[in-house]
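From the methods appendix. Each design record in this collection lists the tokenized structure first, followed by the designed amino acid sequence. Records were kept in a plain field format so they could be parsed without special tools. The example shown here is representative of the layout used throughout.

RECORD:
FOLD TOKENS (139 positions):
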């Protein structure tokens, strides 16, 4: 994948790519627009995105109902400047020169929307800080 694109790229990884990483990718896409390239993947992707996650994001005006979990590839990691893991542990490949962050967040799997809301809100806070670091708004 060509790296001629000057925008920073972020890859969010969790085990199933059905909850936390989907929420993080959706918030970064919404809040940073085209200033950041966004990817998400899972080390063992689920068949579908968690319905409680879809509902929790819909409550804040973000529609991810058409998203599907994606498998983590070496190419996706190589093409990303920042890799943010959320509970994928040692299954995420590590390459020199990449920035790795591990966000410890509760897993929304099997939880209702009431339990997903605080996870959603914490992810949004972390995404806002990340945007300020990677792609601050121009004056």
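DESIGN:
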């Amino acid at each position: 994948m060509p790296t001629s694109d000057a925008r920073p790229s972020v890859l969010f990884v969790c085990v199933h790519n059905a909850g936390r990483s989907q929420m993080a990718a959706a918030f970064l896409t919404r809040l940073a627009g085209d200033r950041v390239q966004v990817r998400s993947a899972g080390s063992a992707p689920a068949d579908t995105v968690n319905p409680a996650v879809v509902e929790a994001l819909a409550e804040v005006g973000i529609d991810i109902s058409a998203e599907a979990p994606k498998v983590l590839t070496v190419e996706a990691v190589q093409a990303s400047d920042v890799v943010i893991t959320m509970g994928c542990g040692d299954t995420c490949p590590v390459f020199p020169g990449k920035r790795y962050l591990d966000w410890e967040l509760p897993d929304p799997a099997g939880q209702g929307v009431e339990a997903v809301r605080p996870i959603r809100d914490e992810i949004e806070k972390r995404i806002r800080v990340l945007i300020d670091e990677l792609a601050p708004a121009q004056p």
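APPENDIX NOTE: The longest helix spans residues 113-134.
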